[in-house]
Amino acid sequence: MTGGIPDVTIIDAHVNLATDLAIPRLFLEEQAANIYHRLASFGQSVKPERIADRLFSLHQDHDGDRLVAEMDAAGVEQAFLVAPDFSHVADVALSPPELAELHYKVTRRHPGRFRVFWGVDPRSGPDGVALFERCVEEYGFAGLKLYPPAGYSPSDRRLYPYYELCAGRGIPVLSHTGPGWGPLDFTYGQPLMLDEATRDFPRVNFILGHGGVTHVEESAYMCLHRPNVFLDISQFPGVLSSDGWQAHLNRLFQLSINHKILFGTCWPSFRMSASLESLTKEFREGTTVFAGVRQSHRRLIMAETIRRLAGDGGMTVAAEGLA
Amino acid sequence: MTVGTSEAAPVPIYDGHCHVASTDFIPTEFIEDVVGNVHRRLEAEGVAPRRSRLVDAYVAQHQDHHADQLVKEMDASGVGRAVLLVPDFTLRMTAPLSIEEMARRHHEIRLRHPGRFWVYLGVDPRRGPEGVDVFERLVGTYGFDGLKLYPPCGYSPSDRALYPYYEVCAALSLPVFLHTGPTAGSLDFAPAHPLNVDQAARDFPLVDFVLGHGGVTHVDVAAYLAAFRRNVYLDIGGFAGAATPGGWPAHLRHLFRLGLNHKIIFGTDWPLNRMSGGLGRLIEEVVHGPQVLAGLPHRERALILHRNLLRVLPARSRPVPVS
Description:
Chain A is an alpha/beta fold and 323 residues long. Chain A contains 11 helices and 8 strands. Chain A has helices at residues 25-41, 48-58, 65-74, 96-109, 125-137, 160-169, 195-200, 216-225, 244-252, 276-284, 295-309, and strands spanning 10-15, 76-83, 114-120, 143-146, 173-176, 206-209, 229-232, 261-262.
């Protein structure tokens, strides 16, 4: 138990609702093809259709019940659902207002378990800004989510009205960095693209999604030098590290930016190869992840910082039937 | 032409990255750039000869006009076959030969050393539409095996002017090998960032792109591109001269333990390290040394040492069929 933190509160700052109502089928097909190519290259006999079928069947958790069951088993108290806006780059089953409603329903179905980062796209015009404002006011969504590989810079001036709203209401911005869904443009995933926005909006807190996993050096120095920049470690099970993700995270936790690091998984990204419970167990009981890391820092990473960013004790969504 | 391994049947070794060490193909300006750095180092150490003497020494190492010396090195070190890259420097440096002459000479080298070389012919997209015709004609006439790009000459690998070349590559199943990272001091480093390939890799999913030096510089980005894009591969050319703490065997050891061995192609960038022990010493350390491949499954060693290269080559260029 020397490296672990058995009774810590865990808040997952980055999960997704595994539903093909939100994730375009094209993206899942591309991911399945990539998995197949990899397995076949290593000489495993698999059928491409079976991988695709499995992936599609994993994306039927429209009400979040399965996710909550996994959170329960893993001891995750609360999670931040990231609702992406892919409406400008692919066919999405639900329109943005319908998607917002779906996420709102999930938060009501599982009171206290979810908060939502609402995804926007700078190309949506005033309608997008209005919808975001409604999501915050009526649905109690906690933050703004950006997916720059959809084809824009996070410092795009058309995003500034959103940032004005975030500044006024103390709402954080989570921006994806690094590679992502196959059909999209990875050149927009470089963390430095956020730099101008972080300077123009010093009162808005920006979280570099996956910043602890890809472009780590750049993300870490931005955290170190910009008071309003944070990073999350979501996607860590997939980090390209020769000695495993546990050792990688331990190195990250030695960089003097533990007050800027958020625990997150990007679950259910790794459902096909791991369980959420097995991942959190490494944080609770493993000897590597937190080796040499102060208890107070562990608490910051696992829950306290994301809580503070989202407004501690802030608005939680009322239980279904009570609102 | 095989070297035994401790584990199983001998694994053929193919070098995916060589140049004919000849001043007929490598401009003297390029050699002078290389010498500039060597001279600066020796100067700092107080042991620098006159610059012109260094240039003479390097030029003397580039008189292997028919690749006889290279073949001798290959024989001595157990390298069965190698890819000869023919970069097109003509728009930035004074090239002794035209592209047609370079192509013919490489064809003659292949005839002189049958069954030993593949050839990737270089182009610069600024040659205009007739450049595409020249490339297509030369590839057809000589049965060349791939396209070589040198973005530090001042263009992006996603430059639209390259798309007609990529169409040719898609039609003939030719791989595209592009330099990434730093190079000769008088060329541009910025276009050589690996993310510059992203657009082209998405637009031409049926063309395989090999990131030259991707396992040596910008490794984190190059590695995630290879992990996320089915048609992106990494080359490790120049590994022995890399600025890697702990030495290059340790660096390669890490690289080969990222779960990416289905995407990494062994290559040396001969004659880059000719002055530091030659091909034999490198191969010995890679194949039989205690670090680099030690303990890797036979299949993964085979992927790195020849199978991945065969997979990106067109079927007609493979000495044996691969799955």
